[in-house]
Structure formats: C-alpha cells, structure tokens
Amino acid sequence: MALAQGMAAAHTPGECWRAAAQGACLALGGTFAALSVWERDLGRLRVLVNSGERAGDEEEFPEHESYPVHQFPEITDFLHDRWAGGGASEAWVETASGPPQAPRVAALRRRGRGCCIVAPVVLHGRAWGELYIARAPLDPVFAPEDADFATVLAAVVAAGIAQTERLEEARQLAFTDALTGLANRRAVDVRLGDAIERHRTENVVVSLAVCDLNGLKHVNDTRGHAVGDRLLERFGSVLSLCGAMLPDALAARLGGDEFCLLAVGPSADDVVRAAGELCRRVAHLDLGEGVSCGVASTGDPIGPVRSARRLFRLADAAQYRAKAVRATGPVVAGRAGPDDPVVRLADTPPPSAPERRAFRGRSSADDQR
Questions:
Q1: Cα dist from 26 to 22, 113, 207, whole Å
Q2: Does pLDDT of 104 surpass 90?
Q3: Strands of the sheet with 126-135, listed across from one edge
Q4: CATH superfamily assigned to domain 185-366
C-alpha cells in the first residue's frame, strides 16, 4: 500500500503527516485530505497538514489552524462516549447537503467541497486525532464501503505515526545529553559539518564558543558527584538561556565539564556578547569557579575555515588561553592583531603533544586548506 510505504520512508514527523494525508487522499479518490491531532489539554483539534487542492485559507503545514472540539458533536460523542465505552473507531461520511448549521457541513460549503470522510485515528489505545478526506462537489459522494476503507486507512496511519514517534524518540536520545538535556557532541558534529558547508558555499557566518566549567573536579571531590551533577545542570540552564540570545543557536555539552554554543548566521559580535553574558551569569553561581570561554568565528580574521575541525581547534585554543590567563570574559580568536596568539596556537600545535580534543570529520590536512 502506497500510504504505508510513504509513511515508512518519512524521516521527520512532518514528512510522515504529509505521506499519511497524500496516501489516504489517493487511496480514496479524494481531492483534499488533512491529518489533525486532538490536544486534550487545550480541548481542540489542531490541523497538522493539509494536502491536495487547498482552499485560500489553508496552508500545507498550518501553525494556527485548530478547532474547539465542542463545536463538533460527533467528535465529542466519539471521544467521550462511544470510544470511552469501548465503541469501535469507525469512519463516517458528511455531505455539503446536510444541515447548514453543522460545522463540518458549513466548512464543506465554505471551501467548495461536496463531501468528506472523517476517520478517527487511535494510537496506543487512545483517541489521537482524525484523518479527513474530501471530494469536489461534482464527484460521487463517498459510499459506506469507502468509510469502511477509511477506517482501515486510519489504522495504517496510526501504525505509521507510532513508528515515526519511536524513531523520533531514538533520534532525540542519540543527539541529547542525558544529564543536562542539551545537545550532545554527536549533534554538534552533524550541525557544525552542515554549517561549514554553508559557509563554504554561501559565506554564512559560523561561530563556535567552547566553554570549560571551572571547579567541577573540586566540587566532585569535596561535595560529591551528585552536587557536581547539579552544578552541570545549572550551568546547562544558563548556557541555554544565553544561547537564546542568538537565533537558532545550538547549546551542547561536549562531555565532562566541556560545553559549547554553535551559532550559524549571527555576527561574530553578537556571539561574543552572548558569550560575555554567559561568563557574567556563571560567575554568580553558588558552586564552581566560573567558566573559561573561547570563541572562534568565521566573521573574524582567523584565516580560511574549510573544515569543522579547524573552527573547533580555534575555539578550543581560545578557551585554553582563557583558562591559562584566568580571563573573566571570553577570549576571541583573531582579535589580537596579525600575530594573534590564539590563531598561532591553533595552527601550530606542539608536534610532540597530543591534541586536547579528539576531533571528528576531516583530516588534519584539511585544516589549512
């Protein structure tokens, strides 16, 4: 079945919703289909996707299209009476020739449609939402067997949504630090690799702030790891707060006491300001000894950056210098003149000393190209 195959091939929830609506529309010979979710806490049915011949006020992925459930007696009946009492999740047909005061009939007429099928979607034993398929006024009205088929399609959609949710949960776990809830090193590697490619092709500014939380070892040794974990969580919250100063910035824990902010688009000065705010806020935390923060941005004179590895080296070198000089604010690569010590440290590491950080991605030969 094309519907099941399309949903199985989806990589994101949005792609899954679109595949469900498109597949159901095609299978039932409709001209339009929508998938909606019941938001219990808000008492509304929110439209996730509109597919097919959309009316002027319908968007494919609407942000604000929702309907109070109490306006639709058939939904209320299903959700609170038949389904709660063990009734079947059967689809039904509505036509534009029905009572004009009925909300669905009014919607059919307003949007130039002749009939529709409404199929409840049940997931994990609970009413999840609905699948809606419509036809044009001159098309044949849906028959009872079409409603039976729609009930089967809704079950297929529910199975596809469940699979997508499991994949999304696994993806979140794979790219999330369990202690702080921030992104993890794997997420940074993926996002930074894509960002550097955009910098190379579109000259987009890419900035990275690398931070070491000072004093964590002392806290762990003197007050226990549980207290140290709380310090890491509190720092993660401050990092997230300061990252919100930069549109779409990624706040991440690289491991241990190392964190970073990755910004794609904002200017270098904006990133430095956010890093400065981070340093100021962390200095007032009850535990720890502040933060050592280094910033590297393609918006500063740091030389060509054609690999994620090079930007990480520069930010790491800036952070290393911040720690060495006990800087109370961020140290920024490339802002100390032609012989910037941070750039020099990043570009000429001691040949016999191992790098402080294991880098993924391109080889070291790419760093200077």
A1: 6, 16, 46
A2: no
A3: 66-68, 44-52, 32-39, 126-135, 115-123, 92-95
A4: Reverse transcriptase/Diguanylate cyclase domain (3.30.70.270)
Q: What is the pLDDT of residues 8-57, one digit of tens each?
A: 887 788 899 999 999 999 999 999 999 999 887 777 889 999 999 999 88
Alpha carbon distance 91, 335 (integer Å): 66
SS3 235: helix
Cα 94 versus chain centre, distance: 37
SS3 283: coil
> 2-174 belongs to which homologous superfamily?
GAF domain (3.30.450.40)
Residue whose token pair is 């092709």: 201
Backbone dihedral angles phi then psi of residue 334, each to the nearest 5 degrees: 90, 5
Nearest CA to 123 out of 159, 153, 148, 151 is that of 159
In 283-351, which residue ranges form alpha helices assigned H by DSSP?
308-324, 341-347
If you count DSSP H runs as helices and E runs as strands, how many of each does the chain have, helices first? 11, 11
Between CA 127 and CA 352 the distance in angstroms is 64
Does pTM surpass 0.85? no
- The Cα–Cα gap between 7 and 11 comes to 9
